[in-house]
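Contributing new records

If you add data, match the layout below exactly. Sequence lines come first and carry their own label; structure lines follow with theirs. Keep one chain per record. Anything else will be rejected by the validation script.
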Amino acid sequence: MSRDSRMLAGILLVVLPTVMSVCLVLSPVISRSVDETALSPFWKWLGRAGATIATILVPAAFLLSATSPPAKQPNGLINLVHVGTPFCAAAVSKSRSGSHSRAARRMKR
């Protein structure tokens, strides 16, 4: 695992211990997968950052959208889900596309 991925995983596990979600587990896994790809540094950064941003925004949207006890429906902060989801999709697609291109290059040899 690269130094950047280890640092990101450590920060996530220290800063977000109360957020029990799939994203919290998915972020370090995607970081590891991105390390194994043959992508440019920008796309690797997007893969790592996208997973982390989604890890923060999606659970925050659900938690913050119902802060008022008498609320019958979520407030406007639920829209953070629509902001965080594309980041997660970009991170997953970059981790997968890079690994496929690397595997294809190995098969050509």
